[in-house]
Amino acid sequence: MTHTLRLAIGSVFVGLVVLALKTLAWGLTGSLALMSDALESLVNVATALAVIVALRVAQRPADANHPYGHHKAEFLSAVLEGVLIVIAAMVILREAYHGLMDPRALDMPLTGMIITGLASVLNGVWATILIRHGRAQRSPALVADGRHLMTDVISSAGVLIGIALAVLTGWLWLDPAMAALVAVNILWSGWHVIKGSVGGLMDEAVPDDQLDTIRRVIAEAASDDAALEAHDLRTRHAGAVTFIEFHLVVPGDTTVEDAHTLCDRIEAALMAALPGARVTIHVEPEHKAKHSGIVVLS
């Protein structure tokens, strides 16, 4: 079992504990704001399960039907997470509307706030772990899960502030109002999760900093040979894998063996700089040079 998959399984257990705590807080207080918080945690558990399935699919080796592998399964998981977030937000907004029309006093608010605070601390610690390890292992599913949990922590803090104000001021409408604000925050989070995942599904290029690294590595790896330039650089990412393609221009009298040796060195350098990279190099003779290539090798 990979480290990434262990983290995904851990998310399910953490999510269940947090869900139990927040559901208890909601049951004790009858707060719509705490109900919205608990419902978001229910989404967390569902999406954590989806992440496990996606990671297991993404780790399958390439086959005849999927020659580029199954890495994009992680993006599908993140899209599902975004959709579930939107559905949860719609349910919360509906309950918040009815609560604003008929506000009610809260039962045992202090106890509910303490329980929710403990759940939020647990969520915050786990979200930090997921984001850090997700970035290190280049797993969009783990990063998306971690970011959503961090959003949950922020919305929980807002909920606690709203409940405290409702208790201190007697303004009962603050409870459903905070539930509505949580829903809006959840919608914003869901939009960003979906946007990032769709970019991966649409073969979006790697970020500019990674693109600069790729250019630099190609230039340095080929600087001691007779390569003239590299152009038509194209990149895309799928889960933990970065696909890199470009044309490499060499003198026309370069032997096949020398060109192959050069390509092997460039490929090894790129894979060292970007673990999991898949590199495709098309070698061309010097009359194919464009003199305006993305990378000019010295």
UniProtKB/TrEMBL annotation:
Residues 209-286 form the Cation efflux protein cytoplasmic domain. It is found in: Membrane. Belongs to the cation diffusion facilitator (CDF) transporter (TC 2.A.4) family. Pfam families: Cation_efflux (PF01545), ZT_dimer (PF16916). Residues 11-202 form the Cation efflux protein transmembrane domain. InterPro entries: Cation_efflux (IPR002524), Cation_efflux_CTD (IPR027470), Cation_efflux_CTD_sf (IPR036837), Cation_efflux_TM (IPR058533), Cation_efflux_TMD_sf (IPR027469), CDF_Transporter (IPR050291). Keywords: Membrane, Transmembrane, Transmembrane helix, Transport. This is Cation diffusion facilitator family transporter. Gene3D superfamilies: Cation efflux protein transmembrane domain, Cation efflux protein, cytoplasmic domain. The chain crosses the membrane at residues 7-26, 38-55, 75-93, 113-132, 153-171. It comes from the Bacteria. It is a multi-pass membrane protein.
